[in-house]
Write a structure and sequence with these properties.
Keywords: FAD, Flavoprotein, NAD, Nucleotide-binding. Its cofactor is FAD. GO terms for molecular function: dihydrolipoyl dehydrogenase (NADH) activity; flavin adenine dinucleotide binding. Belongs to the class-I pyridine nucleotide-disulfide oxidoreductase family. InterPro entries: Class-I_Pyr_Nuc-Dis_Oxidored, FAD/NAD-bd_sf, FAD/NAD-binding_dom, FAD/NAD-linked_Rdtase_dimer_sf, Pyr_nuc-diS_OxRdtase, Pyr_nucl-diS_OxRdtase_dimer. The chain is α/β, with parallel strands linked by helices. It has three domains: about 190 residues, FAD/NAD(P)-binding domain (3-Layer(bba) Sandwich); about 110 residues, FAD/NAD(P)-binding domain; about 110 residues, FAD/NAD-linked reductase, C-terminal dimerisation domain (Enolase-like, domain 1), CATH 3.30.390. Helix content is about 30%, strand content about 25%. It has 16 helices and 22 strands. Strands 1, 2, 3, 4, 5, 6, 16 and 17 form an eight-stranded mixed β-sheet that branches. A five-stranded antiparallel β-sheet has the order 18-19-22-21-20, with helices on both faces. Strand 1, helix 1 and strand 2 form a beta-alpha-beta unit.
Length: about 475
Amino acid sequence: MAGAAEYDVVVVGAGSTGENVAGQAVAGGLSAVVVEAERVGGDCSYWACMPSKALLRSGSAARAARRAPGLEVHGPAVTDVLAHRDQIVSHYDDTSQVQWLDSAGIDLVRGHGRLTGEREVTVTTADGEEQVLRARHAVALCTGSAALVPPLPGLAESEPWTSRDATSAREVPGRLLVVGGGVVACEMAQAWNDLGAEVTVVARSELLSSMEDVAGRLVREALTEYGVDVRTGVDVSEVRSGPDGIQVHLGDGSVVATDRVLVATGRRPRTDDLGLETVGLEPGSWLDTDDTLRVLGADGPLPWLYAVGDLNHRALLTHQGKYQARAAGDVIVARATGATVQEQRWGAHAATADSVAVPQVVFTDPEVASVGLTSAAAAREGIEVRLVDYDLASVAGSVVHAQGYQGWARLVVDPQRQVLLGATFVGQDVAELLQSATIAVVGEVPLHRLWHAVPAYPTISEVWLRLLDGLGRDTALA
């Protein structure tokens, strides 16, 4: 065993979240090391956000071009799309990200890290060597989440894809069955259908069930139009594999023949082999934290242990993990240096947005962009709201943007406080509308002030004016 090394902060997991925790800590004058068993940059860089959007881009661009009068456009060329995906993921080489760590003054130890005591992480390298890392101030666990594969009869024998396999595949399957109805399921159904696979989606509930109902319906209608067989309200009961392919038996008695099964039914925390038991926590569990991302134990927060990103289950999104990382890195510095900790709501060291204003884009065609509360979420919280809907196809910018544009928008408004609680947009290129909605929700901008945020004409952003019209000028100016 190599000798122990001491740092102010030890970060386990060098994905985008871990990188940002370490970066903030070093920027604040502390020393930091990150531990990584796979590639620096994590899932987002190699198996999730970046490659999935690379796979989706050509198909969505081709359809957008077809909607522009006078253009003749062919579908995406598979070889070129996969080559573009490989370029985006740097051919699965993390050299450039390692160079960034070095330039930022962050040390890297490759291997599997486990807690072996208070403020102590033991790293086992690929060749079996062990190195002990000790933290003067904090250990941050940033190991993320992995695909949850349900224990369905025969599923394991079919060698199912998870999201990692779906974004890194080297060839297009003839037939692909997607189990699930969430973001990964919808995006990968779109991508592989665009690339020529015969795709079937099987979902227990409606598509995108955590979002506004209309969003899921419009995505389902679009996927069906593009040739995807979408079956909702049905379970998979059994999977049988044989020389003629895979037979997937559904709860309604039907059978779907396929060449590949993609399981996109949820996520699990990567905490099963982190040594949590050494500090009184349950291995394999999600980790509860306070708003400064300190892990909560039986007797309250552990003053030195932080869980940042997916594994605290607050918001399983790359951008939210980076947001948490900045807050966690800053609060670690504040506590280490004796500075004031601003942990009040919207304080510099509190991850308030995780429960109030989480933005998300589903990169299907149409896109779905949402932030804040949906109407259903507001109802669950007992908040009386007013809903304002508008047909995006009626906005001048949409008419110019695309022939036959189809879309929809909704604001969720608190009529008592006269502020925006949530917004959802569905349509081509609506992702670019999302930041304005996020600012309105986070800033609790009064509705009467939003009237003065004049949208340029003719842009799709003019929908803001139409939505405010739907509230009624007297109400909005009250």
